Inverse folding.
């Protein structure tokens, strides 16, 4: 049985206090020989924690699940969800435990959550454990997203368990300690909605408003305002994913967070060559969650959030649907607005430039036709602004097509008081040099699985400063070699 630990982590139990009925009290299952692989020192300091203490024996015991902080009430959270469009009324944390909430120096409340912490009542036949590779993938990708300005959960630590897990092969086990604004999901509301307890849905909605969208409390219709706030947060999030070529991989309703953070980074990856049909997840056989379909499927997921909220929005079902439908439909305009603002910044244009969205769409079509790398293609545009078209033109199999597009782009950039050098510098602060490219991630995770953490540490160091071109890191800016293979797949790790 796991033991209690001292004041290393002072955790609150607000979720457990406020939302009985949406969890099962549960303690992590201790592991044989915990050993720290990663302690995220920048995040620890941001949270007011001592990274050295976290890496010490007492800290590692908590991060592995062998000890529970004094006063914590760990729980396995309940939720439901549509998985690849199919309804599953009871999912929940099958291999994860919420230790509690940490209130940082900035006053923000964040969940501290252990993934791979053993079987829970929601395990559905799984072993409750996780392997080193997938847990380190979440760390690498979440640090990259954070540095790129994309809201995301983050890894506080990855701890080796000293025990094997069995997937296709025998692999070393690990526990991921994750920090999130919360783990409230669309699926949490779906679960509450089918329990036959309207008061539970109301308590959950009130909690979500207080924790994430407090402005909704003052609205004439607070629960409609909550729905609108989540729609807005998700529209902004998905637009940011699209700007950087991020493919989540499993956008089931239980993986869509009410907070607007990226959550559950399982088979996620970054796209190299532009292709709306890009899919990496080994379980996404039909391409439901391809890069280009992410906005559409998130809107579909949000429609599922509306269902349990309808009785709170209005007592009459028709009135509730009439109120919620325009909000749901507004997702498209909200997403288009966020996407246009971001693409204008990537093109060096004012965010309200009338031609920005059209130029962005046209460029992406050219890049798709020529299989141009998204990250390299946009980064090369700043050199063109400085007067050197060669890096950008060299990426296109049809340079004349790029020239025709660039002529329109330059005309849109021109204007009184526009300084090309300042424009190019602003673009360099928006278009990254480095993202966690799949071949580098796979190389690093393979090495880590074999006991060598050096490649993971170097990759994390690179992606934490994505906009700053640094000598000696040229290999990290290159797309995958042809030998890497077009059939690359990622896995959830369950």
């Amino acid at each position: 049985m796991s033991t209690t630990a001292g004041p290393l982590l002072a955790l609150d139990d607000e979720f457990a206090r406020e939302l009985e009925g949406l969890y099962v009290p549960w303690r992590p299952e201790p592991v044989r020989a915990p050993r720290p692989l990663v302690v995220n020192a920048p995040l620890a300091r941001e949270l007011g924690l001592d990274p050295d203490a976290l890496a010490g024996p007492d800290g590692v015991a908590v991060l592995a699940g062998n000890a529970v902080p004094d006063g914590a009430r760990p729980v396995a959270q309940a939720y439901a969800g549509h998985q690849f469009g199919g309804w599953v009324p009871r999912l929940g944390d099958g291999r994860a435990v919420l230790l509690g909430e940490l209130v940082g120096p900035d006053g923000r409340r964040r969940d501290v959550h252990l993934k791979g912490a053993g079987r829970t009542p929601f395990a559905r036949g799984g072993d409750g454990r996780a392997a080193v590779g997938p847990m380190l993938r979440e760390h690498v990708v979440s640090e990259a997203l954070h540095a790129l300005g994309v809201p995301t959960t983050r890894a506080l630590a990855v701890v080796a368990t000293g025990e094997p897990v069995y997937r296709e092969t025998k692999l070393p086990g690990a526990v991921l300690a994750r920090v999130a604004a919360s783990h409230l999901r669309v699926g949490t509301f779906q679960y509450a909605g089918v329990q036959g307890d309207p008061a539970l849905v109301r308590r959950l909605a009130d909690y979500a408003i207080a924790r994430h969208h407090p402005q909704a409390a003052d609205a004439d219709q607070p629960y409609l305002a909550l729905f609108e706030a989540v729609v807005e947060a998700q529209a902004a999030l998905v637009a940011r994913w699209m700007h950087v070529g991020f493919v989540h991989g499993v956008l089931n309703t239980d993986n869509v967070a009410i907070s607007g953070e990226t959550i559950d980074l399982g088979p996620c990856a970054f796209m190299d060559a532009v292709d709306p049909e890009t899919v990496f997840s080994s379980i996404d056989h039909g391409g439901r969650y391809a890069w280009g379909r992410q906005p559409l499927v998130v809107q579909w997921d949000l429609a599922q959030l509306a269902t349990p909220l309808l009785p709170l929005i209005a007592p009459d079902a028709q009135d509730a649907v009439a109120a919620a439908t325009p909000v749901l439909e507004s997702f498209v305009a909200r997403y288009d607005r966020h996407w246009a603002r971001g693409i204008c910044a990537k093109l060096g244009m004012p965010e309200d430039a009338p031609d920005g969205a059209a130029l962005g769409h046209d460029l992406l079509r050219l890049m798709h036709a020529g299989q141009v790398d998204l990250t390299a293609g946009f980064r090369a545009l700043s050199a063109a602004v400085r007067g050197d078209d060669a890096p950008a033109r060299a990426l296109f199999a049809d340079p004349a097509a790029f020239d025709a597009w660039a002529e329109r782009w330059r005309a849109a950039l021109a204007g009184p008081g526009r300084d090309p050098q300042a424009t190019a510098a602003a673009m360099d602060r928006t278009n990254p040099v480095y993202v966690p490219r799949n071949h580098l991630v796979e190389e690093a995770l393979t090495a880590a699985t074999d006991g060598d953490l050096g490649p993971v540490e170097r990759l994390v160091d690179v992606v934490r400063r994505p906009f700053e071109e640094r000598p000696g890191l040229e290999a990290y800016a290159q797309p995958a070699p042809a030998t890497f293979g077009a059939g690359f797949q990622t896995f959830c790790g369950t």
